[in-house]
Write a structure and sequence with these properties.
Helix content: 25-40%
Structural class: alpha/beta
Order of helices and strands: HEEEEHHHEHEHEHEEHEHEEHE
Radius of gyration: 22 Å
Strand content: 15-25%
Strand order of the largest sheet: 4-3-2-5-6
Number of domains: 2
CATH architecture of the largest domain: 2-Layer Sandwich
Number of strands: 13
Length: about 300
């Protein structure tokens, strides 16, 4: 009798052909790289699900965190612990949020965000990583002020994914490039998926994505404000990468851009010659991982 091939056998045969690619369901793992205590540090992956996009008015409905250790060269060592909690908002969860996350009013009913357990969990982490830190950090600073004083890194904006051969930065796509898929939009599941992505060795560098992210997050960036710039030149600023601040959060009502220290002089020269056509000294803010993506920035 001929034995029927198993699913793993079929997947292996498909992978040997250039005409097929196989995606495997993500099975979270605890161990990545053996560590002999060689200067390992503790990192934190964080994800929130919320009732909307406004960090002032909307509310967290789920928080997920995964704590992990990593080596000095950016290799991930192991998962240390995970934390998850629901939070009942003051309003009914919007239908579009339910459709996106699968989180219902019944699931969160009676649950409350408690600051002390969160503070204890994050206390020994030297960096907090989110896949869109500009969103997650602002929410978490409302709910757990201890996180306002942590260093943060963003795995969306602080890794130039396209320059490393990727066509986008969405988490499901990046995970797919690792040959995996998962059930997205649940907080801890997304953190575990991000951990696999950060463990990837980038093809052109032979370094992990985490090492590139940490290197970028350690740099200072300069926020340059193009205040009172001519309205008719707004498209020029947009093409250059400037973003608009409406002033609602206390920042200037102005276009602005974040640049590295070594390109600060060139950016000011661009403003002087192209936008203002005169000598101009813009307002600047120096940002580090401790205030980047924060409401305080």
């Amino acid at each position: 009798m001929t034995a029927h091939p198993t699913l793993p056998d079929i997947a292996l045969r498909l992978e040997q052909s250039p005409d097929y690619r196989v995606l495997r369901r993500l099975v979270p793992r605890a161990e990545f790289t053996p560590c002999d205590g060689e200067g390992a540090k503790t990192g934190l992956l964080l994800d929130v699900e919320t009732t909307g996009l406004d960090p002032v008015r909307d509310e967290i409905i789920e928080l997920g965190m995964v704590k992990f250790s990593y080596l000095p060269d950016g290799r991930i060592s192991r998962v240390i612990d995970a934390f998850s909690c629901f939070n009942q908002p003051s309003i009914a969860i919007p239908s579009e949020v339910i459709a996106l996350t699968g989180i219902t009013d019944e699931m969160v009913r009676g649950h409350r965000f408690e600051e002390d357990p969160v503070n204890r969990f994050v206390s020994d982490a030297v960096v907090t990583i989110a896949h869109n830190a500009a969103f997650d950090r602002k929410f978490m600073e409302r709910y757990a002020p201890a996180l306002a004083h942590k260093a943060w890194a963003c795995s969306v904006s602080e890794i130039e994914w396209r320059s490393h051969g990727f066509e986008g930065s969405r988490l499901p796509y990046l995970l797919m490039k690792a040959g995996l898929f998962h059930e997205a939009h649940r907080a801890v599941d997304d953190c575990l998926a991000l951990l696999e992505v950060l463990a990837l060795r980038l093809p052109y560098l032979d370094r992990t994505a985490l090492s590139v992210l940490l290197e970028r997050a350690r740099r200072k960036t300069i926020r340059i404000w193009a205040e009172q710039s001519p309205f008719e030149l707004k498209d020029e600023l947009k093409r250059r990468g400037y973003r608009w601040s409406d002033g609602a959060d206390g920042r200037p009502r102005s276009w602005y851009i974040d640049v590295d220290e070594d390109t600060q002089a060139a950016e000011i020269e661009f403003l002087q010659k192209t936008i203002y056509q005169r000598g101009f000294e813009p307002r600047i803010h120096i940002l580090t991982a401790f205030d980047r993506f924060s409401v305080r920035a």
